[in-house]
Amino acid sequence: MSSYPVRPSPSGSTARAIVLDERALPRRWYNVAADMPRLPEPPLHPATGKPVTPEDLAPIFPRSLIEQEMTTERWIEIPEPVLDIYRLWRPTPLYRAIRLEQALRTPARIYYKYEGTSPAGSHKPNTAVAQAYYNQQEGIRRLATETGAGQWGSALAFACAQFGLACTVYMVKVSYHQKPYRRSLMQVWGAEVHASPTSLTQAGRKVLAESPDSPGSLGIAISEAVEDAATHPDTNYSLGSVLNHVLLHQTVIGLEAREQLALVGEYPDVVIGCVGGGSNFGGLAFPFLMDRLQGRRQVEVLAVEPTACPTLTKGKLRYDFGDTAGLTPLLHMYTLGHTFVPPGIHAGGLRYHGDSPLISRLYEDGLIGARAYPQRAVFEAAIQFARTEGLLPAPESAHAVRAAIDEAVRAREEGLERVILFGLSGHGHFDLGAYDAYLAGQLEDYEYPAELVEQALAALPELPR
Amino acid sequence: MSSYPVRPSPSGSTARAIVLDERALPRRWYNVAADMPRLPEPPLHPATGKPVTPEDLAPIFPRSLIEQEMTTERWIEIPEPVLDIYRLWRPTPLYRAIRLEQALRTPARIYYKYEGTSPAGSHKPNTAVAQAYYNQQEGIRRLATETGAGQWGSALAFACAQFGLACTVYMVKVSYHQKPYRRSLMQVWGAEVHASPTSLTQAGRKVLAESPDSPGSLGIAISEAVEDAATHPDTNYSLGSVLNHVLLHQTVIGLEAREQLALVGEYPDVVIGCVGGGSNFGGLAFPFLMDRLQGRRQVEVLAVEPTACPTLTKGKLRYDFGDTAGLTPLLHMYTLGHTFVPPGIHAGGLRYHGDSPLISRLYEDGLIGARAYPQRAVFEAAIQFARTEGLLPAPESAHAVRAAIDEAVRAREEGLERVILFGLSGHGHFDLGAYDAYLAGQLEDYEYPAELVEQALAALPELPR
């Protein structure tokens, strides 16, 4: 029990939870493309090197999502049936981390937006539900996707169950066997889950022919899911991060948080999120960046990534493939090279070689800051958080916790009354093996070497810019 | 997507979530003993057969909890520091199960109180926090307890972390090895977790001497924890269910639910909860029973248990030991006999041989109803719930889901617009192995035979009543 005083918010509040009634659910998603000084370069067709057209994408995505991928409209209406599912867990709570503040003896006020109350336990259902809805509206009967540890697959399985769609998940084989619980969760929601590589697709059969014992990879699983969608007219493909429409759907996070902070008279000095493909980070940060881009506020925005997968802090902005196999359209993004093989860090959701083109451009233009942490410092922060605030963060989200604690300590050292907002994008209930390894002293830090990035990028085919 | 109409509540609401501001947190616990037509018989000292005195309990419990165990005061003030921790997750949400209603095409309105948002994922912290507080106030430095699968141990570990107490958990050895994740969770919160039997206590050493490979049992773990507390002056013992003060602390659940239902103009026709030792059930039901006992309302109250451990539906009311080893005070309760060995059903929290004396007396007096379900019907209900409402129920809580669905179907068949409230006492994120077994068709139903109860009770020593 700390005697460190609780500092009231500007409105005089010392409330811990700032809850919104479901009537306060945002009715529109915010599209940051409307306010960016420079838009991202367009995706290119891998065969022609020309910008991808809506027709190119039609075999695997519904028309409405292709439109959302390309639009610069500022606000996109959220359809009523999507809101209806959002109400199953949204608005999510915004908490003030009073007990963490006291433990740190910081004059900063720390807030966090908690997305772990969703059925799947992370922010991922925000877009899964929207994608399932639009696909169902356009007559699609089944969605195919890939998943690594299972965060995204379980979100899509949940969403498909809500709209009566079938769901096929290609789960990386090694995770399928090592992490059976998220697989079970997908099956509870009715999804069909295959250990990838499978013999169901040409891509899978090719891999199995060459190496029958392949443990699989996210790259292989993507190829299988895309092929499944492209070869079945009633089936589309669904992706959980990176793309513009995915980040768009996630902006409900930041829109709610902005509203909740306003209720206690607050506006953040800094907004912090962990970044893998960028959907959690963009979802939280874009509605605040909007204020900055429109000249209303001077908020700082900080993306946090692992030193083991330092896409923003060590990668380069250029065209690269979205998948390991090199089959997808070329995206203009910060990348470590699509041949990047991440070391076995435990924040599976942050192991992607690239970063959303929207975030990449904003970072290049100096509108977003970035910082990388080694995993032990991240778990240390997660445990300090769990012991003060109670909740167990997902290892991904714990990167944001680490940065928030460091910012709060700096505020103490500098005697500044800063307002810190971070995203707690999910709970760690399926990640206790990683906590176990940390507590047993079995985790090692790893800095991905810049030379490997240079080599991987040098090996890329010649491409514009 | 069902087109079945959503029926507004009496206040005209079709809201899904009924959330309370933290200012609406109950300030007092409700003590049902104040309103019972007949009090339970007192606990007896196992050696003397005389009612247990406060002095008998002082070596392992703090004075304030002993007082709460024995009082008939109607309302007990919740101390401010306990409220302060409750605010980490309370008030918990009350949801209306609109999508489940639609799937069932029932005219009933179904509400559920969700306790899975607590840090430990169940209702258990409601009492763990209070117990940690009172112990710390009386100068205790450490709490010892037992845990089976880990629900209670993790709740107490969390609570101790909040008050700077050390926490020692004796975890049944077979669970310690088979379910390492809840163990990790306890360690994240700073608890010391031992696989019981240990060589740290006389009780443990005795077991190990006789059978070095003992898988442990809850009975052994209780003996170890009690001995640890009794032999260390700075250490007390803490129990997660059955006792009066435990149920008292849980009444925040029902008090909040009553308030939340009133916000939409509702009062339940039936309140449903799963029952193991009784803390979840009592916590939800007692504040509604209060209305009935005080003559204000005619609410029906239904306790749900597994057919594999049918304490209320097949057990007998009589004095029996609280633990398997026969060392605790004798409690007057419905029991299957303390030698009961539960078959391997997956709802670990419902495998206790006895039932809280308060609930036992209320059941005997016809104020509570009871029903038992086999486990496959329970998992079937859990999956229907997960696919419509999203959340994954703990297998214990799924017993209440089963009964609520059956009540809603009956309402449809009888054309009755009933209001059903049930308790969703925890999430199933640590129980996916059980879901997996169900989906794979590996679960079997089991009816505990009445003859075994007769035999076990006949073997009990001669005791009053």
From TrEMBL, chains A, B:
Pathway where this protein functions: Amino-acid biosynthesis; L-tryptophan biosynthesis; L-tryptophan from chorismate: step 5/5
Residue numbers of N6-(pyridoxal phosphate)lysine PTMs: 124
Cofactor names: pyridoxal 5'-phosphate
SUPFAM superfamilies, per the entry: Tryptophan synthase beta subunit-like PLP-dependent enzymes
Tryptophan synthase beta chain-like PALP domain residues: 88-424
Key words of the record: Amino-acid biosynthesis, Aromatic amino acid biosynthesis, Lyase, Pyridoxal phosphate, Tryptophan biosynthesis
Known EC number: 4.2.1.20
Substrates-to-products reaction catalysed: (1S,2R)-1-C-(indol-3-yl)glycerol 3-phosphate + L-serine = D-glyceraldehyde 3-phosphate + L-tryptophan + H2O
CDD domains found in the cross-reference section: Trp-synth_B
InterPro entries listed in its UniProt record: Trp_synth_b-like, Trp_synth_beta, Trp_synth_beta/beta-like, TrpB-like_PALP, TrpB-like_PALP_sf
Broad enzyme group: lyase
Known function: The beta subunit is responsible for the synthesis of L-tryptophan from indole and L-serine.
Binding partners and assembly: Tetramer of two alpha and two beta chains.
Family: Belongs to the TrpB family.
Alphabetized PANTHER family for the sequence: TRYPTOPHAN SYNTHASE, TRYPTOPHAN SYNTHASE-RELATED
Protein name: Tryptophan synthase beta chain
Organism encoding this protein: Geochorda subterranea
